[in-house]
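FORM 12-B: Structure-to-Sequence Request
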């Protein structure tokens, strides 16, 4: 049996171990802050339907959208179905964990139209409309279902695959190749300097933030055989033409769009003039901490990183 792991993932996790050992934890990256972390009351599982308590919460997806309905008495709040069975026919049903001892089920819907009283909402549109802990569980469901959808056939010989390792992976029925859910490590760094009027943060906006315009810390995916530290330096140089020093680890977060693992740092400016990368960065500026532009959503590690720097002053 052959088990294939993405080479970028292997190299990056080695770099993560080095980073965590080398850099002191930046104060403020506390798990209690709003985030995409799974709640402490959630127990992750990889179980078939007959191994979990019946009924529970249903995270049902149709082409990247979750089946939801308006929460009772709150037109601007959403809820996910709860009960012994989902309100629509489903396939690929899997218990992904227990939230307060309540089973959480991930499944794909077989219908293209939501039933009366329900809507289909993309994961990002659940922010601030679904309780934070349910948004985090929905992120886990999205990644599990996406892995299942994209690995129905073997990438080596194209034969059908089947679940293995208690549902964690999928094994080829012909060549025995095994794949597990992919994680794409990415670094994020907030660069700081002492400006003429006080502390300043380097924030940038790219094409994906076109509407509405949001400024955030720099980020980029780790390349094969590259450490997280080297990725930080390369991405800052490529995206804005600056040099950095004094890297410090801040925290990490799962970001299920579709399967990123964000590893965040803070760093000090070490020279250079801002030159925005064509096709990637629309604008980048130094902002005083008391005059910041529109920022990322509060659940993102980017926002927690920026809030930490502002509190630090």
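FORM 12-B RESPONSE
SEQUENCE OUT:
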């Amino acid at each position: 049996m052959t088990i294939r792991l993405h080479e970028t993932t292997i190299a990056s996790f080695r770099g993560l171990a080095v980073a965590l050992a080398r850099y002191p934890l930046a104060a403020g990256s506390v798990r209690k802050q709003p985030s995409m972390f799974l709640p402490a009351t959630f127990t992750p599982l990889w179980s078939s339907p007959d191994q979990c308590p019946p009924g529970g919460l249903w995270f049902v997806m149709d082409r990247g959208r979750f089946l939801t309905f308006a929460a009772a008495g709150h037109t601007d709040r959403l809820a996910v179905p709860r009960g012994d069975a989902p309100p629509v026919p489903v396939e690929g049903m899997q218990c992904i964990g227990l939230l307060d001892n309540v089973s959480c089920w991930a499944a794909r819907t077989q219908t293209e139209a939501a039933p009366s009283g329900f809507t289909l909402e993309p994961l990002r549109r659940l922010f601030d409309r679904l309780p934070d802990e349910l948004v985090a569980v929905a992120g886990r469901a999205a990644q599990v279902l996406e892995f299942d959808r994209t690995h129905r056939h073997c990438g080596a010989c194209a034969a059908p695959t089947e679940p293995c390792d208690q549902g964690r992976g999928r094994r080829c029925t012909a060549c025995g190749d095994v794949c597990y859910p992919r994680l794409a490590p990415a670094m994020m760094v907030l660069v700081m300097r002492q400006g003429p009027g006080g502390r300043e943060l380097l924030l940038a906006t790219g094409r994906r933030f076109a509407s509405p315009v949001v400024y955030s810390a720099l980020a980029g995916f780790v390349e094969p055989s590259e450490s997280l530290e080297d990725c930080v330096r390369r991405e800052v140089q490529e995206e804005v033409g600056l040099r950095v020093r004094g890297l410090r680890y801040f925290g990490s977060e799962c970001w299920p769009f579709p399967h990123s693992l964000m590893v965040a740092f803070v760093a000090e400016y070490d020279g250079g003039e801002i030159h925005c990368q064509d096709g990637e960065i629309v604008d980048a500026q130094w902002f005083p901490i008391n005059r910041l532009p529109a920022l990322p959503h509060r659940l993102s590690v980017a926002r927690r990183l920026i809030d930490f720097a502002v509190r630090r002053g």
